[in-house]
């Protein structure tokens, strides 16, 4: 039996990005795929944004970080992304870990660019990912970019395996 792990759909080659492309990651798909049974998701498609679509970004407004249309900051998708993460808690809680697409205003785990005035800071998290991590703080989460680091990769795999064993004991 493979271990169930959630993953940003574009990392498995699904053409769901704003430009109709993907960000297929062959190590994750081929090597980790031998052990993990992947469950894909795309928060932006899930809330009804099309493919292709205009990009969205994080901005800071009144001390809050929100997710808006890149050209029209009045189009605010923050609540929809949060609500979508909450509505999907049923399957999210069944996963033993998550692999998230870095730098995404929806999926990024940390260090996502936040626009403020004429500058940017790299201290945001994707809105869907952040909501999910708040609801399930014990779930192992990692980004594809960091899986190239052997120590971080082993650490993540270990945490996923511990979660899997723990779930088996509770069955
Ligand atoms: Fe990939 Fe997430 Fe962006 Fe969808 S929202 S294209 S899964 S990074």
Automatic annotation (TrEMBL):
Domain of life: Bacteria
Protein's name in the database: DUF1722 domain-containing protein
Organism: Pseudohongiella spirulinae
Full protein segment contained here: 7 to 177 of 318
């Amino acid at each position: 039996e493979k271990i169930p792990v959630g993953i940003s759909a574009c990392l498995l080659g699904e053409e769901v990005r704003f430009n109709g492309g993907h960000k297929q990651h062959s190590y994750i798909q081929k090597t980790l795929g031998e052990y993990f049974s992947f469950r894909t998701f795309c928060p932006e498609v899930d809330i009804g944004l099309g493919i292709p679509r205009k990009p969205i970004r994080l901005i800071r407004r009144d001390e809050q970080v929100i997710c808006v249309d890149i050209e029209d900051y009045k189009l605010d998708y923050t609540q929809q992304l949060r609500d979508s993460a909450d509505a999907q808690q049923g399957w999210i809680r069944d996963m033993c870990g998550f692999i998230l697409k870095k730098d995404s205003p929806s999926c990024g785990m940390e260090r996502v660019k936040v626009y403020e005035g004429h500058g940017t800071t790299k201290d945001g998290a994707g809105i869907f990912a952040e909501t999910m991590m708040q609801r399930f703080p014990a779930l192992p989460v990692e980004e594809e970019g960091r899986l190239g680091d052997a120590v971080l990769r082993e650490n993540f795999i270990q945490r996923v395996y511990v979660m899997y064993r723990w779930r088996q004991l509770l069955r």
